[in-house]
Write a structure and sequence with these properties.
alpha+beta, Arc Repressor Mutant, subunit A, Multidrug-efflux Transporter 1 Regulator Bmrr, Chain A, 2 domains, 11 helices
């Protein structure tokens, strides 16, 4: 638990202390000791904001502080120092947060405004501003302990029939195409049938309506005569972090973030293969919309 606290506190402190410096995803992920691939999701779940939104908000708050208490600073010097490209961008962003353009805010801001922004740092204790983030981490870890069983497993080669979907909204239609095909082949329904989703893009770099996800059916042998929308796909045998639990669709993001946190904390690294989900039951058949799922990350 202490390592999680150290990492998130270190990361937030770095951002707050370097608002005028390089705050690229790669640099901040390096500070946090998470890979850029995983850091974006972890940060958003813990803070409730994307990294970019958090940085913009903190820069805007810092500019408000300077406007209120450093009356000798020109407005253009404030926004240039904080990395805003021009007055128009700065003014639009500032008004979004404070309801006033910067010049009007400066006229109305009380001299004591800076006290609101100051953080108590007594006796070397963790700053108050981090307490909610730490609470979020602890809640996530408690949720993970209660809802997921995490193991490292050797999984065999998996031969799949697959249908590609572009965008998260098209996954269910892709499964419908796959099931219709399986019925024609007398492969569905059958006992212990397994359906999978294989993620070929990351939501971090690809918009949700463009991300490529393969809706898959586990087969006993390799598909040889694929035609139309259905094609053959293979998941190679290897080591995987597997998180198993009975969850709702709304829990999926928490499950993935939990696994990535667990992977980093246990010093595993992801190999060049695609993460996937294996469904052991159908949420539509459960009164609470729950399903039994394996969340699988390929590791070296």
């Amino acid at each position: 638990m202490k390592e999680y606290k150290k990492r998130i506190v270190r990361t937030i402190q770095y951002i707050d202390a370097n608002l005028d410096a390089d705050l690229s995803l790669e640099r901040i992920a390096e500070v946090s000791a998470y890979s850029p691939f995983h850091f974006h999701r972890i940060f958003k779940l813990i803070t409730g904001e994307t990294l970019q939104n958090y940085i913009i908000r903190k820069k805007t708050e810092r500019s408000a502080f300077f406007l209120a208490v450093k009356k000798e600073m020109e407005i253009k010097d404030i926004y240039f120092d904080l990395g805003f490209s021009n007055h128009s961008v700065f003014s639009k962003t500032f008004k979004k947060y404070y309801g006033l353009p910067p010049s009007e805010f400066r006229k109305k801001a009380p001299e004591t405004f800076h006290k609101i922004l100051q953080t108590d740092r007594k006796n070397g204790q963790v700053d108050t501003v981090f307490s909610q983030y730490i609470c979020n981490i602890e809640n996530l870890l408690n949720w993970t302990t209660m809802n997921l069983k995490i193991e490292v497993k050797e999984l065999p080669e998996m031969n799949l029939a697959a249908v590609m979907s572009l965008g998260i909204a098209n996954v269910e239609p892709s499964f419908n195409v796959l099931i219709d095909w399986a019925k024609m082949k007398n492969l569905f329904p059958r006992e212990n049938i397994k359906m999978l989703s294989v993620y070929h893009d990351s939501f971090k770099v690809t918009p949700p309506d463009k991300v490529r996800i393969h809706a898959c059916l586990l087969l006993d042998q390799k598909l040889e005569d694929s035609k139309g929308e259905v094609f053959s796909e293979t998941i190679d045998a290897g080591r995987f972090i597997v998180g198993n639990g009975e969850v709702t669709l709304n829990d999926f993001e928490q499950c993935w973030v939990s696994l990535f946190l667990w992977m980093n904390e246990h010093n595993y690294s992801m190999r060049k293969a695609f993460p996937f989900e294996i469904y052991h039951s159908n949420f539509k058949e459960h009164p609470e919309g729950k399903m039994i799922v394996d969340f699988c990350i390929p590791i070296q």
